[in-house]
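Repro case for the chain-ordering regression, as requested:
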Amino acid sequence: MKFDELFRLIHFCETIEKEGTDPFDLDVKKFLETLKRYHKKWKSLDDLLLDAEALAELAKVIELQGKWIKDRSSSFYIDPALLELKLKMLEPHQLATAFVRSWNPVISVDRITLQRLKEGLNYWNALLPLNKRKEEFPLPSALDTTFDLGDLIELNILSKEEFADALQAVLKELEERGRIDYHDFIYGDAFEASIIKAYLTSYLVSEGKAELDINPLEDEVFISPSSTNVTAKALHPLSKSIAISLSYEDWLQWREKRKHGQEPNER
Amino acid sequence: MEREEEARTRTERKVKRAAQLLFFWRHRIPGVKGWELKKAVGDDYLEVLGVLDSVLDRFGMEVKRISEEGEERGEEEEKTERDRFMIVLKDPVIEKASGERIDDVAMLAATLAYIISKQGKAPRKAVEDFLSEKFPKQRVFFALDRYIRQGYVGEDETVLYIGWRTRAEVDRKSLVDLILSS
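-- result from build under test --
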């Protein structure tokens, strides 16, 4: 229990150092009293190391407090709240003008010289052909991470409500069209919209609101609205992934067939 | 008389060498470190820079010295050698001097002023939220990433701070004064 309190204080000091929050948020007197209270209870080396770490962090915050006072007493100090308010009130062109008037750009020349060109040519001449340097260019590894719905919401690309509405619209369409070839359902006039629809449909299937009927021998995939309200996860706790390929070329073919009045699903 | 002539020629050669080093982009960041100048020009490189500075003054330019740590100047010799020297325009540029969109310059000004008001560093999230009041989030993300790449803003994990380029190019006090008096 005693560690918790000290870890919390150390963490608080670190936050002040890292994020530049007001160092006077830390009550130094109380901090020292806490250390004093525990002082006689320390037994092991780890206890003493923790005590030392806490003291070191406290010293850093006190240093920041000194800097804070120095800064506030200097002519350079500006009240952050006042500046923030002013920034909110100004138009972009006023801000840009202020910047340009206080801006002294660095002057530098970035150009190739004859000497550097010669060095480049020598390097080129000494370079072995690509097929003899394969180990220098390993194949790119697959991406470790992908964006999930949470990331998109976090990035403000999508909101939860928008996503739920889009999902509902796809479900409604599926219910209206009934059992249908998967590609006929997904593909539409625009390829981009088709990809978005496929993405949303995958959620419907995962949630058990739509069912896939796969016939591997005929290479057919049908989708239909689910006849039950029980979620897929409840029905099949061990979920499995199904890969269905979509490509721009495939979509073009589908569109051509539709244009010529053919049944698009006769692929 | 001849010795005087010799000394002048030597100084001119050194000034020319220093100017080439300072003007030409040799690293990821423009300018050169004190130790590089010392190696190329000699122990008296600070005096040589003084001469170069007076020459550049006629063209509205000056030699600027910035430390990696953020302070404008350090006096100890060892520290001077670690400092970076570069050439900047002396008088603030009034005319359009960059191809940046006005929105981007405005966002940069607001970002710098915001960070300056928070004593030189602020959580990235706070800066993003602040800028998002006037610009779409996606543009704010891209703009901040670009300022970091350009060196105007530095990033340490989740915290943004004033970058080397702002220290070299922007008169921070003037910027804040101009904003407050606008």
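Ordering looks correct now. Chain B touches chain A through 61 residues (CB under 8 Å).
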